[in-house]
Amino acid sequence: MPAAELSTVRKSILPQNGDTWQSIAARMLPGVAEPEAVSKLQSWNLHVFMRASGAAGSVRGNNPILPSDVIFVEPPLAKA
Amino acid sequence: MYDLVIRNGRVVDGSGMPAYNADIALSGNRIAKIGRISEKGRKEIDAEGKVVSPGFIDPHTHFDAQLLWDGYAKPALSHGVTTIVPGNCSLSLAPLRAEYRTKLVGMFNQIEEMPLKAFKEGVVWDWETFSEYITRIRKGLAINVAPLVGHSVIRLWVMGEAAMERTATPEEITAMQGVLRECLDAGAIGLSTSYVDMDEKLQPVPSRYADASEIEAFASVLSEYGRILQIVPEFYDADLTIARLDQLAEISLKYGIPTTFSPLFVNADNVDAVDRVMRRVDEQFARGARVWPQVQTRPIDISFCFAVPSLLFIRLPGWYRIMRFGTPDQIVAAFKDPATREKLVAESAVYNALWPNLRLRLVQTEANQKYVGMTVGEIAAARGTTPIDVMIDLSIEEHLDAHFLAADMGHNSDERVGALLKHPRVHIGASDGGAHILSFSTYGDTGFLFAHYVRELNAMSIESAVKKITSETASIWGIPDRGLLQQGYIADIVIFDPQTINRGEEKYVQDVPGDGSRYIRDAMGVDTVIVGGGVAWTAVAGYNAETRGEILPGEVQKTRPKTRQKVRA
């Protein structure tokens, strides 16, 4: 079965190096104003948004996004 | 003359085929003949009325530390488990530089709830490389060990402190690939990683700072050896789990390797979640990917006392922080401080439906013995107070040595769990053997499978159950010559009574280095356990001093195909 024939699941991405809410918003939600796009992403990704920020002095600072995170780029799908 | 003959047994050979009556003769460490054996054996076992099956394989354990002081992985061996896979969840005890021992012990303490004192008093740190660790545990090994190497420790080895801060550079990735090759050459069965775990400072473990390209670079090395990738996905959310298993499926297809994710629980709060995940698993298998979900047999029971952090409180930050970072005196002082207590009680309100149903398991003082066995709600009624105040007050009175049980916390739907366990694309595992030793017993899941799902519920045949935890596991993990009772196979064998095999009652024992305690369950109905052709344990005589455990699949010069196929990331 080709990947294209898989059933539809909630769309997500894996972050690129150094990604922030803003950079993901610009890439994945280009037609949406940045504040609104960032807000949408944060609400769709509470597993990241609600995470405590990095340790004091850490490289990622206040960016809660880890390089390994799954980031959803749409809301949960309605139940079939 | 054969070395050992097992006579008159009911052979359940691990293939899933119907059981049959036969004798089994062993020569050295292998099965020499199955059928009617006229020749005598130097040793003979009468298995009349018993099932004779391959030894069970437990694919998700954390016996990494215990193996340093207990080569039997007690009591797992007595339950019929002849092979264990430690090193899951991105954590192994090697490779490990001396300067990161404290760090790794902290991670094991935080994630797997293993006491710091056990490491301090039970471990002589005389290894750094994976090969040295293997040499260390091989002495006195009575159970077979198929060790994973942990992604987080490889990162620490190559990147040092930066492992906990950032993605790796191309040079660091190349170096980590080299370390993984060294580990696989030394006997690692695969690589484990985690997308959820937190370290001793409640920061993400090193593996979580890796991007997708790093995982693929590791997968390309695993493909050279045909070895497995194990992950812990964000199992608390179905969408996240599906996204993660899609990532695994692409890796499996691209690099031609098996992958497995654990755990997959049946959650009463979201009963559709497992069905959605399994539909996706089925689709990915239909594409040719191998993404094996691991499902445990036992329901979730959690015991705790406030002296050590419990995962039950992970979503109550105020409580968890006190348990995680406080000394016993500091915790008692916090409970006695009115302002702190008020905050804790307020935070605990989210679980007010849970607290009354907890049961008091154990206290030390004579005065409180009368409450043991009662629910917290019953004690609250007797004392004229609230359930949460009972827990706090008893803990103060017992200087934190009051133990509570939260029973049946999930994964307890017989119908749903039974359907999962017999699903052809479900891998029975996720016992966590050797971990969480003060929260629950991780021993006896195999006995529970036979007692509950085979005998009581008739949800699966004994042949299917044996196959699930023997040949299927060996096949998924690429463990050669084990998991079946066939001529020429290694003689890892369990003899058990199908009418009585079970897990015993959970009990609290003090047998951990540093005067530590843990919850265990004794085996019931298991008669004899044979590892590598030698009797390793019997119900009558206990553990045998002669040990024959091996590292599986073993050093690569013995096992690797001559031509390596490289797939570039």
Report on the structure:
The complex is a heterodimer of chains A (80) and B (569). Chain A has 80 residues and is mostly helical. Chain A has one domain (17-72). Chain A contains three helices and two strands, in the order E-H-H-H-E. Chain A has helices at residues 21-28, 34-44, 46-49, and strands spanning 12-13, 71-72. Chain A has a two-stranded antiparallel ribbon. Chain B is α/β, with parallel strands linked by helices and 569 residues long. Chain B has a domain at 302-406. In chain B, strands 1, 2, 3, 4, 5, 18, 21, 22 and 23 form a nine-stranded mixed sheet that branches. Chain B is globular and about 75 Å long. Chain B starts with a strand and ends in a 10-residue tail after the last helix. At the A-B interface, loops of A face helix 8 and helix 9 of B.
Could you give a quick summary of the protein structure above?
With 80 residues, chain A is mainly alpha-helical. In chain A, 29% of the residues lie in helices and 5% in strands.
Silhouette of chain A: globular
Q: What is the average of the pLDDT values of chain B?
A: 94
Tell me the domain tally of chain A: 1
Helix content of chain A: 25-40%
Largest sheet of chain B: 9 strands, mixed
Largest interface in this structure:
A-B, 26 and 32 residues
What is the radius of gyration of chain B? 24 Å
Number of strands of chain B: 23
